[in-house]
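Lab notebook: predicted structure, single chain.

Context: the supervisor wants predicted structures on file for every construct in the current expression panel, including those that have not yet been purified. This is the next one on the list. No modifications to the sequence; it matches the entry in the shared construct table.
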Amino acid sequence: MTDSYKIAVIGCGAVGGYFGGVLAHAGADVHFLARGQNFNALRENGLTVKSIKGDFHIKPVQVYDSIENIGACDLVILGVKSWQIKEIALQLKPLLKTGTTILPLQNGIMAADELGSEIGYDFVVGGLCRVFSKQAAPGIIDHFAFEPSVEFGELNGQISNRCRVIQSLFSAAGVKAVVHDDIQAELWRKLLFICTGGLLAVTRSDYGPVRSLPQTRQLLQGLLQEIYELACSLGIKLQDDIVARNMAAIDKFPPDTNCSLTRDIWQGKPSELEYQNGTIVRLADENGIEVPINRFIYFCLLPQERRARGLDN
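Prediction complete. Output recorded below exactly as produced.
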């Protein structure tokens, strides 16, 4: 990596704002795309990150409201919502040059394919992040739990030099960065966990009450087991004890912890429902697998999701 290594962060919310902010704070050349009030706040007041690992403030911020104004980059980090990937994929072309790498950090398992089918798989690596953060206000990110990490890998399973470069970049900024030779398995590992956010949305409860009440704890464990069995049927290599490990991790969360999908649904916003529990139901139907708990959650949340998207009749 050289001093001229240029990074674009598309979306400066909970994910892009946190990881892009950490990189910029460490001295990396980071260029943010933001819109509306967030763009104005970043341009006028800079970026504030409140974190359990330490607060920091960046000003000025290299922020733009147009992709074209950013120019070609070496690394493009996508921090938008999963359902925005299809819409934004073709808009990324002004950022591309020979050797550009696009790192999607979306929830779900579909982002890399949606990007690759539009702009070419050679630009894309599979990726995910693990962080509990939210946009507290325009220009302000709140990282409130969990040790953040980014994980990524080539879609063909090779350990490439470009992944090692990205790993070094994040590591130098103090972020745990892991390169995988089976990124699909890692994406499924995260999907299995984040689908619990749908149960929180249905019960209108944080993890504390859901894990403590025997009836909802049974639903929580059953939801995870369904996804594990579906993944195994599709040839995804997951650990045999992954359900138990997820339950143990959830038991350690602060009681008031929840998920981004949960908050979006509670607030009446469009959510990633189709890319989480909806994906589980779709793949289960395609492969003749029963997932009754995930199906119930998905069906219960569909009316509100449609209303949030202006599709309610």
